[in-house]
Amino acid sequence: MKLAEALAECPVVAILRGVRPDEVVEHVQALYEAGLRAVEVPLNSPEPLNSLRRIVAAFEGRMTIGAGTVLAADRVDAVAEAGGRLIVSPNTDAAVIRRAVELGLECAPGFATASEAFAAYGAGARHLKLFPATTYGPNHLRQLRAVLPADAVVWAVGGVGPDSMADWWAAGARAFGLGGELFRPGQAARETAENAIRIRASLEPFRSE
C-alpha cells in the first residue's frame, strides 16, 4: 500500500519503538484491525530488520511498512532489503533522502525550521516530519505552512496525542506519528488495540469537518 493511500484511510503512523520480532506481528495485527495502515519500526529497537521482515511478510500490500530513526544512507539500503518501503528520520540528511528516492521509497525526514524543511523538500522528500512537534507547537507549523510547497505533507511527531491532534490538523498537519500513545515495550497486544481504537476515534470529529 502506498503511503498516500495509507494516510487517506488513517493519518496515523504507528511508531513501535522497542518492539521485539517475536511480538511484532500481533501488535501490527491489532493496529490493522483498528484501522491504522502505516507502521514504522525504529532501528534502535531489538533486531529491527527481523521485525520488518516479519510484518512485511504478513501485511505487504495492506499497509505501508518501514523503519524509523534511519540516520545513514546504508541503513536505507538495509531497510529496503528487508522489504520496508518507508524511511523516517528525526533529522534532515540529504544523503538519506536521496538514497530513499533513488530506491523508490517514501521518506519523511525530520525538520524544525524553514531552512530544514526546504532542504528536505529540495532533496526529494514530499513528507516532512516536524520533530519534536511539541517543542514548537501548532502556531509554528501554521506560519511554516504559509510558505511551504502545497504538495508537502507535514507530519506532527513527538509529544502529540489525542488531546492535541485537532489543533495540529487546524494548523496544517496531515499526518501524525504516535509512539508511546499507541505502544510501549512490554504491553500486551490487547492494550495496543485499545489505544489504537481510542486514537482512531479521536480523529473523526475534525477529519469529518
Number of DSSP E strands:
9
- How far do the termini sit from each other? 26 Å
Runs in which pLDDT lies below 50 for 5 or more consecutive residues are none
**Helical residue percent?**
40-55%
Round the Cα radius of gyration to an integer and report it: 16 Å
Kindly name the structural category.
alpha/beta
Mean pLDDT: 97
Strand residues, percent: 15-25%
| Sheet with the most strands, sense and barrel status | 9 strands, parallel
Strand order of the largest sheet: 5-4-3-2-1-9-8-7-6
Distinct helical segment count: 10
Write up what this structure looks like.
This protein has about 210 residues and is α/β, with parallel strands linked by helices. The protein is built from 10 helices and 9 strands. It has helices at about 5-10, 25-35, 50-60, 75-80, 95-100, 115-125, 135, 140-145, 165-170, 190-205; strands at about 10-15, 40, 65-70, 85-90, 105-110, 110, 125-130, 155, 175-180. It has a 9-stranded parallel sheet with strand order 5-4-3-2-1-9-8-7-6. Helix 6 (about 115-125) links the parallel strand 6 (about 110) and strand 7. Helix 4 (about 75-80) packs parallel to helix 5 (about 95-100). The longest helix is centred in the C-terminal third of the chain and has 19 residues, at about 190-205. The chain is globular and about 45 Å long. It starts with a helix and ends with a helix. The mean pLDDT is about 95.
